[in-house]
């Protein structure tokens, strides 16, 4: 495989996500394995945008517990209860949560003290159930907006349509 990861820092987000989406689809073509897809999405998003931390927390006890999955960046905490932190909130509410300033989010879980803003996107599986959340952290305030939400939600829609 000769795919490289584009450097999309500074590229308008809508265009950046369109480009990343086609990369992702090309790389995952013919693949149905969830872990392979999580690792691929984490690597693409993390390196294309130069984020601080990008990765998945998987649902290991439905309605109760998330455990870290494929990720890029410094060490992430291993387990997060539903309802705790930004990840646990997105899991309970099954909606994307954008946090412009982590210090203003009550209960934010700090894995890396450099984190300033964050977006967490729920990941739905083929049976319509929540299988994970995708967490992206930045070392800059207010890094994420509706374009990130749209782009990341589209990218993780792979898990509802293509995963086994
Ligand atoms: N900040 C997250 C925890 C995960 S790490 O940042 C990698 C949260 O509050 O859920």
Reconstruct the topology from this structure:
Elements: H1 13-28, H2 34-49, E1 53-61, E2 65-73, E3 79-81, H3 85-93, E4 97-99, E5 117-124, E6 130-138, H4 146-156, H5 158-161
Antiparallel strand pairs: 1-2, 1-6, 2-3, 4-5, 5-6
Methionine sulfoxide binds next to helix 3 and strand 6.
- Compute the CA-based radius of gyration: 15 Å
How many beta-strand segments? 6
Structural class given helices, strands, pairing? Answer: alpha+beta
Report the order of strands and helices.
HHEEEHEEEHH
Report the principal-axis shape: globular
- Note the main sheet: 6 strands, antiparallel
Within the largest sheet, what's the order of strands?
3-2-1-6-5-4
Number of helices: 5
Q: In which range does the helix fraction lie?
A: 25-40%
Please report which band the strand proportion falls in: under 5%, 5-15%, 15-25%, 25-35%, 35-45% or over 45%.
25-35%
Query: Which residue ranges are poorly predicted, with pLDDT under 50 across at least 5 consecutive positions?
Result: none
Give the end-to-end Cα distance, rounded to a whole number of Å.
22 Å
Ligands bound to this protein structure: methionine sulfoxide
- Indicate the mean pLDDT: 95
């Amino acid at each position: 495989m000769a795919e490289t990861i584009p450097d999309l820092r500074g590229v308008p987000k809508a265009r950046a996500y369109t480009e990343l989406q086609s990369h992702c689809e090309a790389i995952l073509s013919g693949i149905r394995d969830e872990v392979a897809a999580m690792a691929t999405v984490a690597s693409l998003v993390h390196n294309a945008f130069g984020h601080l931390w990008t990765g998945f927390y998987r649902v290991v006890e439905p309605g109760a517990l998330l455990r870290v999955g494929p990720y890029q960046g410094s060490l992430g905490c291993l387990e997060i209860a539903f309802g705790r932190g930004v990840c646990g909130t997105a899991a309970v509410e099954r909606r994307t949560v954008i946090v412009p300033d982590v210090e203003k989010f009550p209960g934010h879980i700090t894995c890396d003290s450099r984190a300033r803003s964050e977006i967490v996107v729920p990941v739905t599986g083929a049976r319509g159930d929540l299988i994970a959340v995708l967490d992206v952290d930045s070392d800059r305030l207010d890094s994420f907006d509706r374009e990130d939400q749209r782009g990341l939600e589209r990218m993780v829609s792979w898990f509802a349509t293509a995963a086994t």
